Fold each of these.
Amino acid sequence: MNNYKLLTPGPLTTTEAVKNEMLKDRCTWDDEYKQVTQMIRKQLVEIAQVNEKDYTAVLMQGSGSFVVESVLTTAIGERDKVLIITNGAYGERIVDMANALQLQHAVYSVPYNEQPSSTEVQAILEGDPTITHVAIVHCETTTGILNPIHEVGKIVERFGKTYIVDAMSSFGGVPMDLSKQPIDFLISSANKCIQGVPGFGFVIAKIEALEKCAGNARSVALDLYKQWEVMRVDGKWRFTSPTHVVAAFAKAVEELSEEGGVEARYSRYAKNNWILRTRLASLGFNAYITEELQSPIITTFLYPNEGFSFEHFYQEMKKAGFVIYPGKLTEVDTFRIGNIGDIHKEDMIVLCEIIENYMAVKNNEN
Ligand SMILES: Cc1ncc(COP(=O)(O)O)c(C=O)c1O
């Protein structure tokens, strides 16, 4: 298999150094390995711009969805009720989880290309005092829209509710100062903007909120509180930990710092995204999300014309070394191109040139 550049929202293109870390075997009981876990936990709290007195990072095996589910089952007790805000598939997945876990919940949905309104959140909280928690997705990777977690957070804080933010595809790539946001549980995973490989996710939790969660979980393996209880002692994971992935992640965190931190990474991603959007717009590919609401993570493009075949386009891009992503919308034909990972402006320029050539050939055929 070729070494493609993945223009997808994770797993994504990682550096050689990150991949190389996975060539060694490590023992989960060994102090050296446990220290790696502790170091990562500390660094994640730093990246979130908070301190270890008030916040802790808990790592959890599995893909991002496992970690979202672990937060829901651990943070939301039987007598609680969560307001779930949705404008895409990942918000809807939280609703699916709430149903499966039989959590009391209310849903506030808006169209996929619109942001939820904090005024509406306020009205819902005023109308239903039984709501105890609010859950929202930061970057809805379904479309690439960025949701106003800060504005919604102010309302959530004013009403004294617990705030859960799925920042899966944005944490590490979009500046997010938790010291200025009332987030109680922030969720992300190893294979997104920190640029590690898949295998675990993490939660940056306000200690005060996590402490209240003992005994809530209706799952053995996904009990975030118990995971924290064990992990906080010396970095030992409660059940088998993904050792290779953890080692790769430690390298990825080091590389984030070498790049200049989250601000520098954000600026690289934003540049990638700008090149992609402006050059594709001139070829007739319109973005589904307006520029003001667009994240620098992934862009959803509408098909440029009726004759456009995504399958053919995809195969041609793949032959040229780039793997792109199908759309996730049902009512319009779209595809997606991500620009996170070890992807630089030179890669975006090459990709745009390939797409320009592709479209020139297609236009000549018609
Ligand atoms: C915002 C968001 N939430 C949740 C998930 C689910 O993560 P996973 O597919 O790793 O289970 C994703 C995956 O891309 C995501 O982007």
Note: DSSP finds twelve helices and 14 strands in the chain.
Amino acid sequence: MSAHATRLVDVDWSAFDPWRIQAVQHRLMEHPLLQPDQLIELGKRLEIDGRVRTHSNEAVAGTPFNTAPRLHPNRKSAAETLQQIRDAKAWMSLLNVQSDPTYRTLVDEVLDELKVGVDRSDPGMCYRGGWIFVTSPNTVTPFHFDKEHNFILQIRGRKTLYVWDHRDTVAASEQARDRFHARHERDLLVWRDELRERAHVFHLEPGQGAYMPSTSPHMVENGSEPSITVSFTYYTDATRRDSLLHKAHDRMRSLGITPPPVGQNKGLDALVHGGWRFASNSAQLARHLAGRTIRPDSAPYAFADVY
Ligand SMILES: [Fe+2]
């Protein structure tokens, strides 16, 4: 068997750009940890610590992502929902599965492999995370973005994934990104149906997936069958730098200064990044000396209570 045939995820590395959306293929459909019985057991373990996010099928593309579980609750337990997913009318995400010792092996298996290719243009992979989405027919993942780079892979069922370029200021303003990085708030993201026309659209079937750079807005519509999807996520040196710049810009906006978009003025970015990193490191050191918990974004794995 050739080395190529044993790969879990196929990426066209010659075309890979860490800031460009790209289709990928994979062979994870038969992975033992991604089968329904195993996911029911994982759901039971994660639910104990509140590491399950769920809402009903009443959530739509424009539902505010952060509050969807509260606005449209799914009152069934994780086990009940996962066992009856065809009829549960529910969307469920098993969060930060790398916090489970068994599933950390899956996250490492996949990201160790991807790191070899990613490192060539985007070094410093850290803050590894895994997310498993088990969803009833015709459910929707509301329009949102995340901080991590993301390989999203379809395991069972079909989904339509809409993704917008991370520089698309029509889909998400620069201010919305600043605010999200600084405060984890997505309230400046506004869904409009006409956004569909400017999206990269992936009709995902088992074995297919996509790479989505940090803060690429996305929205997902499930097909008429239950679906299982998995995401493998991480930060790199570049995403951590980008995040720090957005945080600094958010602070500047609160002082009445409108900075140029991140990436537009490289000299200014370098200056702001140097200053803000020094301030941020000093603040972290002070918190550490005061005996408070610090959660550096350079940690090898994502923290289980941050999402
Ligand atoms: Fe997401």
Note: The longest helix spans residues 266-289.
